[in-house]
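Can you give me the bound-state structure? Components:
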Amino acid sequence: MSAHAAPAEPYQPVFVGQTKDRLTEILGRYPVKAGALLPALWLVQEERGWISDDAMAEVADLLELTAAHVKGVVTFYTMYHQHPVGKNFVQVCTTSCCNICGAEDVVKALLRETGAKELGATSPDGKWTIIEVECLGACGFPTPILVNDDFIENVTPEKVPELVRKYR
Amino acid sequence: MGYPNKPHPKETVVLSEYFGDPEAKTYKGWVKRGGYEALKKALALDPAAVTEEVKASGLRGRGGAGFPTGLKWTFMPKEKKGPHYLCVNADESEPGTFKDREIMRWTPHALLEGTAIAAHAIRAEVAYIYIRGEFTEPWAVMTQALAEANAAKVFGNITIHLHRGAGAYICGEETALMNSIEGKRGNPRIKPPFPAVAGVFGKPTTINNVETLAAVPHIIKRGSAWYKGLCLSSPKSTGTKLFSVCGHIQRPGNVEVTMGFPLKDVIYEMCGGMRPGRTLKACIPGGSSVPILTREETERCLLDYEGVAEAGSLLGSGGVIVFDDSADMVYQIMRLARFYAHESCAQCTQCREGTAWTTKILERILAGKGQTKDLDLLLDLSENMTGKTICVLSDSCATPVISGIKKFRSEFEDYISGKKRPVMVA
Amino acid sequence: MADLVNLTIDDVHVSVPKGTLVIEAAKQAGVLVPHYCYHPGLPVAGVCRMCLVEIEKAPKLQIACATQVADGMVVRTRSGQAKSGRTGVLELLLINHPLDCPICDQAGECELQDFTFQEGRPATRYSPTYPKRFNPVEDFGPDVLYVPNRCILCTRCVRFMEDVAKEPVLNVSERGDRAFIGIHPEAQLDHPWSGNVVDLCPVGSLLSKDFLHKARAWELDKTASVCTGCSQGCNVTLDLRDETVVRIRPRPNLEVNRYFICDHGRANYRWMNRGDRVEAPLVRVGRELKAVDWDEALDRVRTILNGAGGSAVALVSPRASTEALYFARKLLARFSWTGAFQVVMGEEAPLAGVPNLALRAERAPNAKGAELLGYGRDYAAAIKAAERAAVVLVVDDPDAQFETSGQVICLGTTAPNGPLHKSSVVLPMATVVEEDGTFVNRDGRVQRYFQGRATPAMARPAWWILGQLTEAPPESASAAFDILAADVESFRGLSYAALGLAGVQIGAGAGVPA
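Here's the bound-state model for the whole set.
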């Protein structure tokens, strides 16, 4: 890395203004500050799309926890992103009930249509990251997928091209 | 029958009455349908009286453990020395189960009402409804419903909060759920202490499942005798249950039947039976953590706690996963093992390492590199993983392996002998 | 007297206080239940599942570390089920373990090795073609390395930092078999007591950089001692390899340091290996110091003392043993006497989760002992008094700077550069690792330390040197202490036998203010 490279942009706190107010309201729901950790992390991800080490430190400060504790929590729960993801983050259930109804074919179709080369990787146009997840609790509507916060039921390989078009 | 199908004549429609009815989600709509009367009635009763009524009804936990609900409520301290808490387990993640999602997105007020009644019965001032992070629609619906109910001030001095999970099956375990609410990793706790003594934030806590609480307003409104009377077989299993039928089936969805109803009729009559040209091969009647049943066992199984136990499995969460003759049992058991390996919290050695090793052995068998001794290894490993850990995730991984090898051994042997071509690359 | 509970463990009957854990009660029955995550100094976790035991009437095996005793309980730690439970855990711990014992520091003192040898499987069933989990070594900070591949996730380190050090800087990251011990990228493991995680780690996952690849556990000679780093008096074990001190580890003492020592004390051993020692007794001949034998040197001292009168000054080290300090005073009993010491001060660093435990500001082990024997802290006054003193006795105070018209007798471990040119006699003395002795900590606890290696060259323990000059020279450190105890009120009734390995508290022991 060149010694003259531009310095990294300073971290901008998430919890200012309205977001700070939301956190204040959330803090009131729990008898200790730590209870607000999961909701606070959701707020960070809502705003930034992912949770950086700096954001973890900010949350830790606000909730009087250590950064290590926050990091331990972030790495435990699979829905928190520890690095930026594509514009559309797609989670496809491939656990047994959906698996026997063709979930793996849905995954293949999605990878093909979006141009994402493999699971977990972001597509070249930056618009798609696709991962396989465990049971999404909609086994009667195979195959369910989440595109960001949109829970879509009954996805089949045939429906994938239209779906990808819609979200692109 | 659950959305998107119409109820089948043989169903006993109680909880699922308004599935698919958009107006039932609104506060006004719910009140119009008789909602919140039970809550009014309960708030006027002594907490102990509410508990007695639920106890008399025979209601048992619908999350999977089947523990008598009224009895569980009596474990809370008789003398109130500080705050009590109610936690509602809406973390529905057991493969094959999708009933709580329906209850929340179609009849959110049913859950809110049941929560408030339960909170009153255990003298809790605060209730947390823990909704798994992936349930974005139930979250939105519940948030809206809670706001409307709060505006109408129906809960008295009980406060209900929603708490969003972030992707962890293990948080459906009651002590892990409490840790998650406390802002920690979702690690199950060793017991004792039991939640009723020291639960969330160290205070006496009761945890109940969504479906369990959705039944409570009905019990209060129509009486425990009515609920107790809904019983077709064992008197220890009363009321109705939502069975989530999925997999190789014509009409997947939730069916609501009286306890003791034949599983055979659920599969063949209500859900349209097998796909054309297919026959039933196997069925897991209670979510992936219970033993797999063969076709014969499935067809004579009665759906209540005692009946399913007699057939060789457990009622569990009531997630009915149907496999027809096209299903590759070895592959699906591997997929389940991979599920448990992915969801293990990493505390106990048997679970952390054992689930991953089980998956690897099964993958190797599927890649055509298995040996007969691998089956003995799997069984030995599964025994090692049973009854030795803080929670039963480890046992749950072992269960399909044990029942799968016992009842479908030939499928494993076909891969080992090379009779079946490999379907994976090791 | 607490309520006692009667139970049977492996057919041995024990009576223990109510609330005792089965794993502790088992110790009373002479049974060590194999375990990893349990530690008496940490909160119970119950995660390793190694201590599963069979308890009659319980439907499943129970973990001994989290089960309290009950009247009439019958526990079997060696039943078929319990053993197979342990063998199972061991097998699972080893499937991802790198098995790099030949290059792992923990070999020889590794609990995974020990229990596997005891009841593990002789061969692995984890096919050789399965890859093992791999994560690169991490540098956690000042002295600690983390080798994730060897980690068995017992979480002792995490619990120590959270509950004992009260600085939760370590976590468990990820889930399932991907889990490892993590630290926030901007954080360091630099808490002044963080080195304890290396001792707590049952395997070679957390390692001390200082000790890395320095010695093999079986090459080490272990000696019980007391830390000389400050006035807390933590009990330690000195590990020596070929007569060189290579490591200090805590020795349990529930009254003083429980199971821990601070990083300052842990690193405080290099001075014990210094080569610049006084090697032989030296006497002044003309302008030179000449090496002589002990008889001649001691005769010279006697001559000096007999020929002197008036005042004497003793400048001593607060690291000298209580016995040495006593005899130093006794020797000068007929003089008008001033005795003083000075103590290097530093910052206090408490271990928050343990009451009354800290790296103390006073960086010396025996200031309290010196005080009880009449030495004062007004070092400057003693220096002034030295100007007119007939005799100045220096005990292990190598940098002492003073002027005197009298004679200087100097006892030194390392070369006493300060008083050297003024000294009439220079006598080589032993350091803490080369003698038996006692220190008195800030709370007034008298604690023994033990000899770990022979005195180098011609050095002798200071109590012997000074004792030889008195009327009834003691033949052993124990005898030296007995003389002291008979003479000094505070020590009345004590003896080496009474002190044992844990020491005895005397006086009010409120401690010296930092």
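A couple of observations. The longest strand of chain A covers residues 88-93. The interface with chain B takes residues 29-32, 34-39, 41-42, 63, 65, 69, 72-73, 76-80, 91, 94-97, 99-101, 133-142, 146, 149-151 of chain A (CB under 8 Å).
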